[in-house]
Amino acid sequence: MDAVHVTKPFLPPLKEFIIYLEKLWETGIFTHNGPLLNQFEQELQNYLNIENVVCVSNGTIAIQLAIKALALHGEIITTPFTFIATADAILWEKCKPVFVDIDPETLNISTEEIEKNITENTVAILAVHVFGNPCDVKKIHEISQKYNLRVIYDGAHAMGVRIDGKTLFSYGDISTVSFHATKLLQTFEGGAVITESGEIARKLKRLRFFGYEGRDIVDEGFNGKMTEVSAAMGLVNLKYLDEVISRRKKLYEIYQMTLCPIKKITLQKINPKSFNYSYFPVIFEREQDLLKVEHRLKESNIHPRRYFYPSLNTLDFFPIKTYTPNSERIAKNILCLPLYDSLPEETVQMIANLIVDVI
Ligand SMILES: Cc1ncc(COP(=O)(O)O)c(C=O)c1O
Questions:
Q1: Distance, CA 179 to ligand 1 centroid (Å)?
Q2: Same domain, 179 and 116
Q3: Is there a single domain that holds both residue 246 and residue 233?
Q4: pTM as predicted
Q5: What is the domain range of residue 266?
Q6: Is residue 80 part of a domain?
Q7: What's the pLDDT tens digit per position in 56-94?
Q8: What is the Cα–Cα distance from 134 to 169, expressed in whole angstroms?
């Protein structure tokens, strides 16, 4: 059997991409606020029904730009159950990540733990919509108002998710998203910073272009620009986004039907009305079970991924040490199963059956 990896990029019809490449050859503009970038930003704004989408070179730079745009200096409360990029972005912006524990059911940052860990040095909350599952945005908003904190959402996984019909990216001061090759909406590499504030959006646009406003350098910026070829890929793929989500939903439900009744397995608690089916994580009771399953799948050339692993608070180079038992336990016991639009339904059923056999 051909290798089945945890994920695979969505490939649109090549012909549609070539039409955009021809435009690129006509304009000769490859980067820096080009026409395709402007069109992609406009179409994203329409799709999300939000005022300001600022596209950038990747989802990590998007978080750094968000921190810079809000001029944060100090401690930022975040989750240890995330990809390393979230916390690295905080360090690169010379702030200190304070890891607080997660809710073991939703896998998102626990709002009680946020509140317990606020100190006079706290300047912001950087929460992650883990695997596209929305954080408790209303409670986080209340906390931010009570303690006068800024809120950034790392929505790397959360493209297309809505709450009560409104894009999830409209919560907080700023949301970020990743358009990495393996994400729901991919632009090879890429990302965006999204905000309802026109003023923040203008600053973000300056910061991604070396701090320039017209011909004047007015901010300490850097290079965060998205290329025209990435914007072209985004324009083609945006048309397929809803289709990709419904295809993944179908596959997700096959896993769910087979694995949900298994006592030694827990699934992430989700609300199907606010979800994009971007990952299928399985939490085992013990790490030994995970290792047995991983081994058995690898024998069949199936490659799930331990994601997120390890819990980031266990890494030495983060300056503030905290104890986060839920995150540490779940990071050891969680495995993301293969899930992507072109994965055949029979393969998903076969993977689920193999897991049931091993467990
Ligand atoms: C939660 C989270 N945040 C940030 C990123 C970084 O995104 P990018 O790879 O586009 O830099 C990722 C990437 O997978 C992620 O999973």
A1: 9
A2: yes
A3: no
A4: 0.97
A5: 242-358
A6: yes
A7: 999 999 999 999 999 999 999 999 999 999 999 999 999
A8: 10
